[in-house]
Amino acid sequence: MRVWKKHRDVIAVTWHLGLTAFGGPAVQYQTVSLQAAVLYGGDRDAEVWRSSIPYSLKNMPGSMRECVPGAIGMYGLSVGISHVGDTLPNPVYALLSGLNAATVGIIALAAVNLAGRAITDKITRILVYLAGGLGMLYRSLWYYPVLMAAAGLTTMIWDLRWLQTSILYIRQQWTRFRRRWQESQKSGVCQLEHGKTDHKSWPTSTTSTCAVNKPLPSPPQNSETSTLTESHLNPHLIAVPLSKFAIIPPPAATTLPTTNPEPRSPGCSFPNLISTRLGSAILGIFLTSFLAIILIRALLPHTTRIYHLFASLYLAGTIIFGGGPVVIPLLREYIVAPGWVSPRDFLLGLAIIQSFPGPNFNFVVYLGALAVKNTGVSSFIGALVAFLAMYLPGLLVMVGVLGLWSRLAEKAWFLAVLRGVNASAVGLVFTAVYKLWEIGLVGSEGMGGAAGAESGGMPLGGDPWLVFITAGAFVGGQWFNVSAPVAILTGGVAGVLKWAAVEAVNR
């Protein structure tokens, strides 16, 4: 009954998100974070919830629960598009371009807000910048996970002070070497001045410099076992033997215990929903399936199209972070390049998904239904296979990590890695903004013909009106509390109005 009550409370608070969560994972994460305040009873507990599960895990395929309504809508769209001719009316292209422009503004706003949470110091600020910039320069299945792993390794080295400790050790050794070298040089000069050398022709001075440069004698005590004499300042301070080159840290400030101590780490207060053994088993199943799919895909390249569709999307769902727009270039490479889906249908679905609720990964449902056309496989089977292939990896990883969370959240190295992974995931959201900007302008000249097929859309900057729509969506959401659905629909209407005005002038 207790478990059912918890699920009932979650459903009561989040049931509508499948119909109202627009703008992709970056926007939905903020919406779900606000709902956590209702579930956990206050802003402080909501902040603990935000910190307990990193944005990078929430942003994985399958991590958002509000996917079913949008997936059903995208399947219906695929059925309709399959019966549409090669060209569409110009107002439709204007509507789709306006939707894309407003969506870019909404995702950019979400990226800025997420960066404000992920950036806690200079190192995370640098990682957000580098992940966003480097993500724009290259695209491949392995590239984004490598960026995130490198960011996690960087923060682990930085937070655990491995780099600082190594630099300090090198400086100490260099200082020690220089001191010994200077002492040996002074000792050699003194021996020359007192005639303790075999070089009879070496010139000597009438005034000895040894007395000038000779240091004052040290107090009569053993330097190897000198002890700390400040113990009388604090009765709890015990004299500890110090080596000759030890660094004495400043005395720590004593603090009185508080009646309401803070938790040791945000992760410690997250509920242990799954046992460690079950979580490890789920992760093992995921890794086994991942390796098996890679081997079969490599050893049997001439399998059926439905298997190739499943394998390609399973691999993409495993190693893609940063939201739906990040995976768009890879989907074009794996779905459009083989000729399974035309560039026009790809861009139509990409534009319409922006006005649908739920994750942008629902785009694969639309592509899966169209990819199996004329293969003898039902479009519903293709959509279902694509849906499972994209969402299963994220679900398995998310559930498996939750099983290990109670142990991992106690580890300093793990929390340090999460800082870097989250920062790089937010940087990839900025990459997604750029990639969607580059293909957001759709039109009859951009979708038909060879040029449109190669580019797969044109940059929004080609039309100043679309730039104005993007800026309006950002400003409206940032300072006037305009919701994402209203901003996106307003952008579509603005695109149609611009087309109508141009048509009226040209008459």
Report on the structure:
This protein is an all-alpha fold. The chain is 67% helix and 0% strand. It has helices spanning 2-14, 17-20, 25-40, 43-52, 55-58, 68-81, 90-118, 122-137, 143-159, 162-193, 210-213, 276-299, 305-319, 324-336, 343-353, 363-371, 379-408, 412-438, 444-447, 449-455, 464-479, 484-506. Helix 7 (90-118) runs antiparallel to helix 18 (412-438) and helix 21 runs antiparallel to helix 22 (484-506). The model is unreliable at 42-52, 199-212, 223-270 and 446-455 (pLDDT under 50).
Topology diagram in text:
Layout: H1 2-14, H2 17-20, H3 25-40, H4 43-52, H5 55-58, H6 68-81, H7 90-118, H8 122-137, H9 143-159, H10 162-193, H11 210-213, H12 276-299, H13 305-319, H14 324-336, H15 343-353, H16 363-371, H17 379-408, H18 412-438, H19 444-447, H20 449-455, H21 464-479, H22 484-506
Helix pairs in contact: 1-3, 3-4, 6-16, 7-15, 7-18, 7-21, 7-22, 8-9, 8-18, 9-18, 12-13, 12-17, 13-14, 13-17, 14-18, 16-17, 21-22
